[in-house]
Hints:
β8 (about 200-205), α7 and β9 (about 220-225) form a beta-alpha-beta unit. The strands form 2 sheets. Strands 1-2-3-4-7-8-9-10-11-12 form a 10-stranded mixed beta sheet, with helices on one face. It has a two-stranded antiparallel ribbon with strand order 5-6. The protein contains 11 helices and 12 strands. About 30% of the residues lie in helices and about 20% in strands. α5 (about 140-155) packs across α6 (about 175-190), α7 runs parallel beside α9 and α10 runs parallel beside α11 (about 315-330). With about 350 residues, it is an alpha/beta fold. It has 2 domains: about 15-70, no CATH class; about 70-345, TIM Barrel, CATH 3.20.20.
Amino acid sequence: MQRPWESAVPGPQGPPSAWSLLPDELEALGCPGHPPSLFGALQRPWTWQGGAPRLGRASRAWLEGACDLHLPRIADRAESGDGTVKLALELADGLRVETVHMPRDLNHPRVTLCLSSQVGCALGCAFCATGAMGIQRNLGAGEIVAQVLLAMTALGPSNPSQLTLVFMGMGEPLHNLEAVHRAIRLLAHPAGLGLPMRRITVSTAGLVAGIDRLAGLHPRPWLAVSLNAGTDGLRDQLMPVNRAHPLADLMAAVRRWKLKPREKLTFEYVLLGGVNDRPADAEALVQALGEFRHRHNLNLIPMNAHPGSPFGAPEGDRVEGFAAILKAQGCFVTLRKSRGRDVGAACGQLVGKAGRDG
């Protein structure tokens, strides 16, 4: 029986991807030699040569017989004036997903990778280009992991301690929770990248059962929730998922998320000019957030335009006024500086095109 947090959309078929297997699974399949060492060769792209893992003859022969060693092809790359790079990755079936590489030079160089979890998205949020695609299929765990490995190989960093991952690309991660969480386990494994959970965030449009399911998994990433309205009436118009999971149910699920020491939640709010950016909208958002407004992060995101969208970003003074109302009510507000907007790599702009000539 289909569980409510899972999608009925199929994922990739065929033999298991070599990029989706943990050391104990490699051993169970009969991997020769020392499975953690082979896993490390697969999952540590900074040791690769010529864009491929360094493997012994016996290991490669075994993998080619037991698994699928295929990696997506970097079909296109677009570099923004701010240093952001959008990679279009062509999958084995010709479909494409987009991954965004965002370097930041703060006190220490860091890279944030924005990962996709599906080809398209089923939720149809009114302001999102990916939602206009509809859903084509889920990504397998190996295809999710491959986004990280390929981006690191092509663009860096060479040290995973400089890497942060956000599942904010194409798709609703909680519609593909099994593959997303398996990918997180692979990326966090100490024999591979060894990423701590504080540097992996999963963003959801508000699937209540999915939040509850993710809350009980180990390891557990940090959570971001996309709100975009403080009332059910407006959120119903912008995000059809709200009709099944209204704000009261969504915030109840967030309250059930038992926070670990130093863990914080993120709430995301896309500002649409003349739609959800009025003072009354800010006051409604304060009420919806309740006690979460005092300690957790509220991320304001001015709308990133894309072809065919009826929406646009508010003027700067309206953004500042909206933020001021929230701050006066005790909200911890950050204004997201959109990265890669000029190459269609910003929040809500990702669209994968099928086919080599797409």
